[in-house]
């Protein structure tokens, strides 16, 4: 029954091909390289540290920009470090926020050590229990197509756990200058880069 | 809820709300604290403020960074012990120069009966400063509003990270 595990770069490329005007936060490590590999975009903010902060950032952004889809793309280890932020997000549940966890059941940047998500912890069930409007496990192309249809619909705070192959891939590095990424993002999203209030 | 203790807001808490309004705040993130409860109630009653209750304080650093990316200003309210939970994540605000305004009510100081509160109280200011935050300690209740207003200017106009500590002596001793 087990199909070939999904390739993370292909998964991220397929999701982001549908993004339209969506705003993207990528979690540190491989998800940041994956999002960068899908093509540079001013509406991406790439984390290179602050492990556990990808979802809180996406939540604050989604609350500030309620009419625009916000996508958080992170890994299982990064999500596990910010597990409480699933509860925080479930309570607020902005309709325009979708969380995608690329789950290889490993801590990729530190040497591929096993993470909790391969040791019995089910992130999809945790998100459901935290009150996300929808939470889905994705393991094949059919599930991925279903996710792509839901991710930018702005009709409910969602979570997808995508099981991906654990394989080392060449790093595609975006800028690590956080000040540059911040100013570029705000210039792309806000009117003349100024506060929209 | 009937179980939730409601405490009338102190004048200094009303002054903080006024400073938040003046500074065009839009999001308030917090972990509940007895010393802040009057202010949190005021913020939740304010239509212009979106409030988010956190499970741990460091979530607030990321949340407010995201808010800023989306064009909104915000503040993070916590008990002083929560500063310890924020240390690594303060690097996000520092390296990206995200404006940050923390308001922390202190335990572990004035008439503190619980020694477990004391180590983080002693370490709060040095830990914040080690991560690049500017730390202001309120001297008296009457000056709190002006201190928040000044800190908001420096944070949001200057891209700095500022923590305002409200001493336990100013809040009053905790009675059980």
Structure, described:
The complex is a heterodimer of chains A (197) and B (176). Chain A contains eight helices and eight strands; from the N terminus they run H-E-H-E-H-E-H-H-E-E-E-H-E-H-E-H. In chain A, the strands form two sheets. Chain A has a six-stranded parallel beta sheet with strand order 2-1-3-4-8-7, sandwiched between helices. In chain A, 37% of the residues lie in helices and 18% in strands. The model of chain A has no long low-confidence stretch (mean pLDDT 94). Chain B is α/β, with parallel strands linked by helices and 176 residues long. Chain B has one domain: Thiamin diphosphate (ThDP)-binding fold, Pyr/PP domains (Rossmann fold). Chain B has seven helices and six strands, in the order H-E-H-E-H-E-H-E-H-E-H-E-H. In chain B, helix 6 links the parallel strand 5 and strand 6 (161-166). The longest helix of chain B is centred in the last third of the chain and has 15 residues, at 144-158. The mean pLDDT of chain B is 95. The A-B interface holds A 23, 25, 45, 47, 49-65, 82, 84-85, 87-88, 91-92, 178-179, 181-182, 185-186, 189-190, 194-197 and B 24, 26-27, 29, 50, 52-56, 58-74, 88-89, 91-92, 95-98.
**Top CATH class of chain B:** Alpha Beta
Secondary-structure element string of chain B: HEHEHEHEHEHEH
Q: What is the strand tally of chain A?
A: 8
Strand line-up across the major sheet of chain B? 2-1-3-4-6-5
Helix content of chain A: 25-40%
Q: What is the number of domains of chain B?
A: 1
Q: Characterize the biggest β-sheet of chain A.
A: 6 strands, parallel
Sequence stretches where pLDDT stays below 50 over 5 or more residues of chain A:
none
> Over the alpha carbons, how many angstroms does the gyration radius of chain A reach?
15 Å
* Shape annotation of chain A: globular
Strand content of chain A: 15-25%
């Amino acid at each position: 029954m087990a199909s070939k595990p999904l390739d993370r770069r292909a998964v991220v490329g397929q999701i982001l091909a549908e993004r339209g005007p969506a705003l993207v936060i990528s979690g540190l490590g491989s998800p940041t390289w994956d999002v960068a590999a899908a093509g540079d975009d001013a509406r991406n903010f790439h984390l290179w540290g602050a492990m556990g902060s990808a979802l809180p950032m996406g939540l604050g952004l989604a609350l500030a920009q309620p009419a625009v889809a916000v996508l958080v793309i992170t890994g299982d280890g990064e999500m596990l470090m910010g597990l409480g932020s699933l509860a925080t997000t479930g309570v607020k549940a902005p309709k325009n926020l979708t969380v995608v966890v690329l789950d290889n059941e490993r801590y990729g940047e530190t040497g591929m050590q096993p993470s909790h998500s391969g040791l019995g912890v089910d992130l999809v069930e945790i998100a459901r229990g935290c009150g996300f409007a929808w939470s889905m496990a994705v393991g094949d192309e059919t599930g991925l197509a279903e996710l792509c249809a839901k991710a930018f619909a702005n009709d409910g705070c969602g979570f997808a756990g995508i099981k991906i192959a654990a394989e080392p891939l060449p790093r595609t590095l975006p800028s690590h200058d956080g000040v540059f990424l911040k100013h570029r993002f705000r210039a792309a999203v806000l009117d003349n880069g100024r506060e929209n209030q | 809820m009937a179980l939730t203790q409601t405490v009338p807001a102190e004048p200094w808490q009303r002054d903080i709300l006024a400073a938040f309004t003046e500074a065009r705040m839009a999001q308030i993130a917090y972990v509940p604290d007895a010393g802040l409860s009057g202010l949190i109630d005021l913020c939740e009653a304010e239509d212009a403020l979106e409030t988010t209750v956190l499970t741990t304080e460091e979530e607030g650093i990321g949340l407010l960074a995201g808010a800023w990316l989306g064009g909104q200003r915000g503040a993070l309210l916590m008990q002083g012990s929560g500063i310890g939970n924020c240390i690594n994540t303060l690097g996000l605000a520092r390296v990206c120069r995200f404006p940050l305004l923390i308001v922390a009510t202190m335990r572990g100081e004035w008439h503190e009966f619980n020694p477990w509160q004391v180590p983080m109280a002693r370490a709060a200011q040095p830990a914040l400063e080690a991560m690049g935050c500017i730390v202001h300690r309120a001297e008296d209740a009457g000056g709190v509003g002006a201190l928040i207003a000044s800190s908001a200017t420096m944070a949001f106009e200057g891209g700095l990270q500022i923590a305002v500590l409200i001493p336990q002596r100013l809040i009053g001793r905790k009675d059980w």
